[in-house]
Each structure stands twice: as C-alpha cells, then as structure tokens.
Design goal:
Blueprint lengths: L2 H31 L21 E5 L4 E4 L4 E3 L7 E7 L7 H15 L5 E7 L7 H9 L8 E5 L2 H11 L4 E3 L7 E3 L2 E5 L4 E4 L11 E2 L10 H12 L2
Parallel strand pairs: 4-5, 5-6
Antiparallel strand pairs: 1-10, 2-3, 2-6, 4-9, 7-8, 9-10, 9-11
Helix pairs in contact: 2-5
Amino acid sequence: MSKKSDTPYYIGLGIIILIFGYFAVTNVIDYIQADKVVDSNRSEDRDPVADKFLKKFNQVPDFQFINQDGDTVTNKDLLGKVYIVDFFFTTCPTICTPMSRNMSQINEKLSKYEDYTAVSISIDPDNDTPAVLKEYASRYDAQTTDWQFLTGDKQETYKLAKEGFNAYVGESDNPAVRFEHSGNFALVDRDGYIRSRKDAYGNWTYVYSGISENDLPAQLEEIMEDAETLLNN
C-alpha cells in the first residue's frame, strides 16, 4: 500500500483517537464533579491517613468546666486526646439513660487506648453539681474508664453545644421533661477538630446517632471504628 493510499487511514485513526480522548476527559471531569473519586485520592479537608475516612470540621471552641471530681477541665486539657462528646442531664427521663449506656459500651472498647477519653456535658448545671455527676457516673462504672462528666455556666454550655457542636439543646415547655437535646455523639481528634464520615448516600455527616431512633440503630460501631482510626493514626 502506498503512502498516498495510507493517508485516509491515518486521518480516520487520528479522528477516532481525538473523539475517544474527548469523551474520556469529559467522563473524568464529570466523575470528579459528582464526588465519586475515592476520598483517599482527594486532598481537601484531609490529613494523610485519618481523613481517608474522616472529614475535618471546625475546631472545638474554648471552654472551661468542672468535672465530677471537682477538677477544672478545659478544651486545651483535652488536646492530644481523641474524645467523644455528648450533652445530657442527670434527671433526664427519656434519652439520656440509653445514651449513657451506649457511651459506656464505647468506653469499654476504647479504654485500652491511653489517649482516649469520653466527655459528657450537663445542660442542667443548676442541679448537676460535681457531687451529683459523681453519683451518676458511678451508675455506669465511669471510674473504670477515662470518662469526664462536666458542668459549668449554663449560657456557656448552651453556646458550646449550639455553636461548637451544632447540637440542639434547650429548655422544654413540658415540666416533666424540663430540657430538650439531641441524642448525638461527636468525635474529636487530638488537635481538637470535630471529625466524621459520609453517610450511606455519600453525604458528609457531622455527628453520630447515640441512640436508636425512628427505627434507625445507634451508630456505635461507626463511631468506635472511626475513633480507632484516629487513635491508630
């Protein structure tokens, strides 16, 4: 076959390659825009290892409270530790008991890590004195794990819940309940940043459900797995 007769063949081949390349690049762009690229290949909001699974949200704001032993605890005291946070009150007649039971279960598994702790913050500081918190903590064998029960200024507590952890807390119109709050747990890394994973639909979540609710199970396995990811990082 002569060079002259080869020319249409190479032109056609070149056109096919250009068309294929165009569609390949377009598909890659669409894939990235649809957030379908594996997270470990993306750089935003990630640390080298832990963020392969977990996104970094805001840093926990400054706080200063008193624990069940009468000791002052601040957010800076918790730097260097991975910890799980919830908001509760000791006279809660609804979700606090299952939340505390679930936190106790988490703590049993994670207590082997020296740099792990749990933090339960009371939204009823007028009643929940250190002595009251200590008695409540004893119900869940908190003395066998590193579990801080904190109390302090009410306005600061509510501000921390809402602005720091995006957690709903408030006083209830129902005198039998008195307070309302979410049943969620938050996971915090060693640098004080809130961390979480994507849900089943590929959306980033901010917290983990600490109780079974609306036929959905508590996310205990998820938060334990993610805490261990941070602890082993």
